[in-house]
From TrEMBL:
Compositionally biased spans, kind Low complexity: 29-41
Every Rab-GAP TBC domain range: 123-391
SMART domains membership: TBC
Protein name: TBC1 domain family member protein
Amino acid sequence: MAKKRVPDWLNSSMWSSPSSDDRNSHLRYTTTSYSTFTSPTIEPSAVDPPVQTPSPSTTREEPPKPQTIEDSRIYNSADDYNGISSSSPSADDISRQAQLLYELSRKVIDMPELRKIACQGIPDGAGIRSTVWKLLLGYLSPDRGLWSSELAKKRSQYKHFKEDLLMNPSEVTRRLYKSKSYDNDEPKCESRGLLSRSDITQGEHPLSLGKTSIWNQFFQDTEIIEQIDRDVKRTHPDMQFFSGDSQFAKSNREALKNILIVFAKLNPGIRYVQGMNEILAPLFYVFRNDPDEENALSAEADTFFCFVELLSGFRDNFCQQLDNSVVGIRSTITRLSQLLKEKDEELWRHLEITTKVNPQFYAFRWITLLLTQEFNFADSLHIWDTLLSDPEGPQETLLRVCCAMLILIRRRLLAGDFTANLKLLQKYPSTNISHLLYVANKLRVQSPV
């Protein structure tokens, strides 16, 4: 059988950026206790010097800060961000920004056209990405006239979620008693705020082991809440937006924690899985930096609902009971393997047959964390623009991007053995993101109908 080959231009070194010791310092999953998403720990390999370096800085830095409101709650100093210097926008960026602003000004948004423009990447600034992502995730209706009422309703709903789900059982019991006191017209007992022994039901007793006991449920949730707290504290430790002792960073971490706890309690079938904080972070970052003050202050509520929408397409990857099913994470990884075999059988055979590099060793993290740990933060946002814009849905687009990642470094992979290839795949070399997404789209175009 003839081995399928890919055009040489797909693997041209001109699309790579030079390696750096700091290139992927954020890949904590190979060195921390993230057992759920960790593949075998291998030291990174060196990346061959490229011909040219068209991509942005390869160090782990934050993207240029969008134009934000003059508010003490938000960082306005350049020193508060980790060094990406704002370069002059290209003509393409200016043109695309103008097109997006025009589409967003319509009374009814043309979603196919919006997707077409956004998939090429959304320029930073003017709060465009925040609004476009909300539209792409279905949080906002294409009808602009409905935005105000929809947002007010959702934000109020999230407020009630927090009040109901983040309340300490002591407060729940106190409110229950207060309600009973009003009903029984017992102002003296109410003023003391004390429950008589006869008024404490089995479900309200701290030592109750009953399934309906609010205290029993509280103690069961404690372990998950502690895990969420640990993971949130480790979210992008090199970004002052999330890390540090400033009140701003603390409030951002608290918002992430609230969202994940509420999600876990509302979704008992999945609850919380380590790594969800990494998927949540880009959404919250984009929404919190919306230049519209009301939107920025409501970022926690908006992020929660968009996180639910995003995860709805990937939830089977997080459900351990489905790992070995036709819809679980192993099945998704198998689909990636099949896609690679279809597009580049020689590379597939070398990886999985000759060197026996199981795709689960590297693709598990790629897929479950939506590539947030393989590229710097700015590049991750660019990739997400494409993932969220694709009319086929982010899952299919993600698999094509992962396949393109393999094809772009095929020469080095074909020359490597098990150890070298695993090193390379677990610390993916810096590359030009626009070209990566172009190749991923070519894989779709060339797919049989």
